[in-house]
Every structure is written in structure tokens, then in C-alpha cells.
Amino acid sequence: MEKVAFILKVTAHPTRIAIVQLLAAQESLSVTDISEKLNVEQSLLSHHLSGMKLKGILSSTREGKNIYYSLKMREVIDVIQCLAGCTFL
Question: Between helices 14-25 and 42-54, what is the axis angle to 10°?
Fold first, then answer.
């Protein structure tokens, strides 16, 4: 239960949940790709991404000037899918 509580705490924002859903569908995406798909400013997005990386939810790799993010803690997908299936939401 502690791991579930940790995941809920770290992802407790609509933008962060959307990031997880995008990265669940595609193995990795650049900050620019995520920004365009979510229609979120890169500065705000970078704040969310760096926080999730710091907490161990995401990992990143640099290719030239681009940083690509991917899910490091795959269990996050299960928790979010479970919540999405709740009938009271």
C-alpha cells in the first residue's frame, strides 16, 4: 500500500496523469512532443517532468539538444488504469 500511496502522491495532477498515459502508449517522447500532444507550455511541463524523474517515476536520456522521457516505474500505469475504471469518477 505504501507504493500505491507514493504513486498517487507523485502523480496527483491532471498533467502528470496525462504524461503517464502518453508514455504508457509510446516508449519515450521528447519534451517537445509531450508539450505539443498535451498543449502545455514547455516550462510548466519541464517542472512536472523533472519532479517525476526526481521521484523515480520517469527516466530520461539526452540525444543532442533533446531530452526523451520514459516510464521507469511501470506500476504507475496499473494504478492509473485501476482508478480510471472506478465507476464513481
Answer: 80
Q: How far is CA 66 from CA 25, 63, 75, 84, in A?
A: 20, 5, 26, 31
Write out the three cell numbers for 33: 512532443
pLDDT tens, 64-87?
999 999 999 989 998 888 888 887
User: Which residue from 64, 34, 36 is spatially nearest to 48, judged by alpha carbons?
Assistant: 34
Nearest to 70 by CA among 36, 24, 39, 32: 24
Mean predicted confidence (pLDDT) in 56-64? 95
29-30: strand order across its sheet? 29-30, 66-71, 58-63
Pick among 3.40.50.300, 3.30.110.30, 1.10.390.10, 1.10.10.10: CATH of 1-80:
1.10.10.10
